[in-house]
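Tokens in:
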């Protein structure tokens, strides 16, 4: 009986405990069911978070175009590879969706990724051993080309997946690199953590970064444990907002011509620096602009010069400044061009150092001020400033020409020069471009007043901004009048003087005569300050040789500035040898550019150079198309062995400059011999045949990875190595002869 009572008592206690526990648990469940929360966390929201997955929809950075719509910069797709290593992804599936054979997968991937199979296997095993669902492969798994990605997909490796990513690509290489600049991928902290974005670093890419940069979208949906969408996934899609497109004022054909000519000068004369600007003086539009040294924005390594010297490097301009000295004297009413003065040397007092004409102070006796301009007389400039105008009046005109301010061009990094004007000698030397400094773009802006009947316009390089999704114009630049420092009559008189500085019997700029167009312009031979601060460098080559010219002279449609610093002049002799590299650039670019723009020649004695207008050759026989181009003296290269033309490198109606290479792709394309081709022609071939093109070096092609005559498949890899003639040591004898022939 006692045992029975104890048993009943213990049973009662256990039952009470059970009932209490049951009530507590039941109450808890009822509470959770009623409130839908645990410890303040909403179960519904928690479940949504667990079931919901979200992916970023990448936006596309806006493109950069030239004025005619040629693409200069765009986002090129590449791929990032990852591997699914969780075997649960393959549950209830006939074929595995995860990496079922890590060893075999690593061995097959290694040669395509140029990596060791050991490293790939380590990454796969790391994911498997640490219960990861997927793993990535570091740098070797990023930036994969479309061709490589397709080759990996063709292996049918279970669990290997790809994510599309964009990199910024510049199809023309070093073309206008200081204008376009470059953008690169950087890590940026956001509300959702660290993400990668393409941001502009230099040039237009930096200046217009906010407009070029898009805003990513996203997609989210609810899924099960195996990442499969639920029947009702509650899907939300926020489409990406792509960046706006930027159109520049530069013309791709003229810019390409400028780049090619500057490369030739760079190879022959090996100057320290070069700068060139082509502008429409009526509007202020920059048609072309380039500097040397330059760089390839696709691979900006070992860059010798980050600065856009055309806008960022002030220097003493030399005698190009004289056109503004004479303009100021004429406008102020004190100029008599026929008045004589004694050339050679000029000293305003015993306490001020004498200034001399460039022929060691010998001068040319008593000559007129008009002749003094043509001969580029420093003494004439000094007398006009000191005796005719007075230094204060000349300073007013310098300010009116905006030499005391930046040009306002829409490029980053502009730096203004400095008017050094404190002492009498500084005032005298400023009149002929020594002491005071300016930038090439400041000179060009001021010269628009001379070319444009007294009206000075602001230079600009951004034509318009366009919505990439709707093609609607968001912003558009217009010519902007920023001053009228001189009258129309003064501008006309200065242009006549500029013509005399090129065409008269006394002209220092006789090398700059064009065949078909009259030219007005002024040479400059600027001294270079000694780095140790003691005066200027000496020697025939230690100058900045320059020219600022406009054509046709009576109504200039184009204006161009060229400067070449410290060239190797051993190739040239005679009068003004420093003008040889400058004139080669100016003459080639101006003559061809004016014809290309259909500007009527104004020299009655010349023969008109025909600019060929490309007909429609698509579908024509290869023989007919080639004969048609050859009869028009157009160089053409046939790509393939087919009978019909299926693609051409120049679109119908386009105007072709002399010596431009035209590519005719046949219906059976094969690899041509591209040895000796320029980078521009190689990239054009790659685009036409949709090749995965990789270039190494600059200059002209010396090796190609696809053998000549072999059939070409789409997305095939083409690697080429380029060298300048100076670099190609194995052909040194050819290097010595070719530049001389080129520059005849």
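Residues out:
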């Amino acid at each position: 009986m006692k045992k029975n009572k104890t048993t009943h008592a213990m049973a009662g206690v256990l039952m009470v405990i059970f009932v209490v526990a049951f009530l507590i648990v039941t109450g808890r469940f009822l509470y959770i069911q009623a409130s839908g929360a645990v410890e303040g966390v909403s179960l519904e929201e928690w479940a949504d978070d667990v079931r919901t997955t979200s992916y970023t929809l990448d936006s596309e950075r806006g493109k950069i175009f030239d004025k005619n719509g040629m693409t200069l910069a765009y986002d090129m797709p590449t791929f990032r590879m990852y591997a699914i290593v969780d075997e649960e992804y393959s549950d209830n599936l006939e074929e595995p969706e995860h990496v079922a054979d890590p060893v075999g997968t690593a061995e097959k991937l290694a040669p395509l990724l140029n990596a060791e199979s050991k490293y790939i296997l380590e990454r796969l095993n790391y994911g498997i051993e640490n219960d990861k669902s997927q793993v990535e492969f570091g740098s070797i798994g990023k930036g994969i080309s479309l061709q490589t990605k397709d080759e990996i997909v063709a292996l049918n490796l279970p669990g290997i997946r790809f994510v599309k990513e964009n990199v910024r690509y510049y199809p023309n290489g070093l073309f206008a690199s200081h204008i376009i600049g470059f953008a690169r991928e950087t890590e940026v902290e956001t509300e959702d953590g660290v993400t990668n974005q393409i941001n502009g670093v230099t040039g237009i890419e930096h200046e217009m970064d906010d407009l070029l940069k898009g805003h990513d979208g996203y997609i989210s949906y609810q899924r099960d444990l195996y990442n499969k969408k639920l029947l009702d996934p509650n899907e939300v899609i926020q489409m990406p907002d792509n960046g706006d497109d930027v159109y520049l004022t530069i013309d791709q054909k003229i810019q390409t011509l400028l780049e090619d000519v500057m490369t030739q000068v760079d190879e022959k004369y090996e100057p320290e620096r070069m700068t060139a600007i082509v502008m429409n003086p009526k509007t202020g539009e920059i048609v072309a602009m380039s500097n040397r040294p330059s760089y390839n924005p696709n691979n900006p390594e070992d860059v010798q010069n980050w600065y856009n010297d055309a806008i960022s490097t002030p220097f003493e301009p030399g005698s190009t400044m004289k056109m503004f000295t004479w303009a100021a004297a004429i406008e102020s009413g004190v100029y008599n061009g026929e008045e004589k003065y004694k050339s050679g040397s000029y000293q305003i007092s015993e306490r001020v150092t004498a200034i001399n004409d460039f022929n060691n102070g010998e001068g040319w006796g008593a000559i007129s001020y008009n002749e003094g301009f043509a001969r580029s007389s420093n003494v004439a400039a000094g007398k006009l400033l000191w005796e005719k105008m007075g230094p204060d009046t000349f300073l007013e005109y310098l300010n009116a020409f905006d030499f005391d301010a930046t040009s306002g061009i829409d490029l980053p990094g502009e730096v203004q020069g400095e008017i050094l004007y404190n002492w009498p000698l500084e005032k005298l030397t400023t009149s002929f471009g020594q002491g005071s400094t300016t930038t090439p773009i400041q000179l060009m802006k001021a010269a628009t007043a001379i070319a444009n009947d007294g009206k000075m316009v602001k230079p600009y390089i951004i034509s318009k901004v366009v919505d990439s999704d709707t093609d609607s114009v968001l912003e558009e630049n217009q010519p902007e009048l920023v001053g009228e420092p001189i009258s129309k009559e003064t501008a006309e008189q200065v242009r006549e003087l500029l013509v005399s500085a090129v065409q008269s019997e006394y002209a220092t700029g006789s090398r700059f005569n064009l065949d078909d167009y009259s030219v007005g312009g002024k040479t400059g031979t600027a001294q270079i300050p000694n780095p140790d601060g003691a005066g200027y460098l000496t020697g025939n080559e230690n100058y900045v040789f320059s020219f600022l010219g406009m054509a046709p002279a009576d109504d200039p449609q184009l204006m161009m500035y060229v400067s070449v610093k410290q060239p190797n002049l051993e190739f040239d002799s005679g009068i003004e040898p420093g003008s040889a590299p400058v004139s080669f650039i100016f003459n080639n670019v101006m003559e061809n550019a004016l014809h290309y723009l259909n500007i009527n020649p104004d020299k009655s004695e010349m023969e008109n150079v025909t600019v060929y207008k490309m007909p429609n050759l698509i579908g024509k026989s290869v023989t007919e198309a080639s004969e048609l181009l050859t009869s028009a003296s157009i160089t053409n290269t046939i790509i393939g062995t087919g009978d019909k033309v299926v693609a051409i490198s120049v679109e119908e109606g386009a105007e072709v400059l002399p010596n431009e290479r035209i590519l005719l792709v046949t219906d059976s394309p094969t690899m041509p011999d591209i040895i000796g081709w320029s980078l521009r022609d190689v990239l054009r071939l790659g685009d036409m045949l949709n090749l995965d093109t990789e270039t190494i070096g600059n200059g002209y092609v010396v090796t190609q990875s696809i053998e000549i005559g072999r059939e070409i498949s789409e997305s095939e890899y083409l690697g080429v190595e380029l060298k300048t003639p100076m670099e190609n040591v194995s052909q040194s004898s050819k290097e010595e002869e070719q530049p001389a022939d080129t520059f005849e």
